[in-house]
Amino acid sequence: MEAHVTAQSQTYRLQERAKEADLKHGQEVRADVPYVRVRTTAAPVGWFARRSANAGDRAEVFFCNIGRLHVREVLVEGDDEPMPTNVVVENLDVPESGMYDLMNVLVRSNGDLRLVIDAETRVVRAAPMVAPWV
Q: Which of 1, 28, 46, 51 yields a CA-CA distance of 20 to 30 A from 73?
């Protein structure tokens, strides 16, 4: 099911990681984005489901445990304008809840910070996180 960004997605974590990776406003890159959490929820039932325009199963994206972004390739150079604060994820379709690595995802930072899953992107289950003290 397709996952979407919501008010609870902690988009500031993606913005922090983009800044650490030295992404710029207006830039377009191919990057690896590790440890994106997706939570699926069942469709509402009963009266509310009949009234809801979005009565199907849903999935929500969370960036709380996101790892460091690895820029593979810069496609379009950016500028020194402020980075966008709105985050959008396009075409992230997963079979179930879990942690996922977005490999070679298209990242655009003009108008909004947009992660685009396309034919060149691989979405794979993330390896379990290991505590640094283990």
A: 1
